[in-house]
Amino acid sequence: MSSTLIHQTKLAGICTLTIQRPEALNALNAAVIRALAEAIQSAQSDAEVGVIVLTGSGEKAFVAGADIKEFADFDAEQGRHLADHGQELLFNRIERSGKPIIAAINGFALGGGLELALACHMRVASDTARMGFPEVSLGVIPGYGGTQRLPQVVGKGKAMEMILTARMVGAEEALQCGLVNQVVPLSELHAATEKMAQRILKNSPTAVETSIQAILAGYEDGVNGFEAEIECFGASFETEDFQEGTQAFINKRKPNFPGK
Ligand code: CAA
User: Where would I find the H helices in 76-187?
Assistant: First the structure.
């Protein structure tokens, strides 16, 4: 399913979703958020899809943020609703996805755009990418999870610097501080992201999904991550993937995981 705002391709287990609003540098208005959430939901329930890739159309921007023109005359209640609705509908759905979601950052990833990339499980950036949180220069703060996920990824000090100065960082600085996992020339972005996705696809889908759950558990209020890991580890032993993975090792062959 492709919409005019989200272009979808599906190849060898990888579903690529491209945000198509180049006239506004792929800024996230309500329609894009809705269409992207729907496209992700459909990829998540597609048995042929194992990894989802998010990217932006064109060579200039991944996503240049939430749509400033759309929220320019909002009041406090509308602002709260924008953040609450967006976080629940899209950003949390991405982070909690059992199928890994990789951001292929092909240019500007600013404000809500960087928050979108941060909600993804991994980030591959082109050497042309520029990332940052310009919100305080507009008189607001990040509202799609940026104040929480940025410190988790780069540490509190760097997150404070990036959010309070509103300074953009280039791809190399982003790599250095752990904001992105890999930097490649723009012409190689698609291939590099695909390679990362293919590596994941070789593994047990149930173990990949359970790993995501266990990692996220450590960031949840009131949840002991170590205890969650013990539960998830134990549950793995009940899966057909575990039988297949261990038998394949013992019999010196490649595993063919059933994904259950
Ligand atoms: N919202 C709405 N429109 C946007 C946009 C955004 N976030 N970013 C870019 N656009 C539009 C521009 O208004 C422009 O449209 P027009 O041609 O109709 O004027 C078009 O996209 C092209 O942009 P520019 O002409 O500005 O391109 P540039 O190359 O001169 O500059 C840029 C590029 C530095 C990314 C600049 O567009 C920019 O600063 N954009 C805004 C970035 C920003 O502040 N993002 C944070 C938004 S707030 C947020 O995200 C809150 C949250 O956490 C929920």
Answer: 76-86, 92-95, 112-119, 135-138, 146-154, 156-165, 171-176
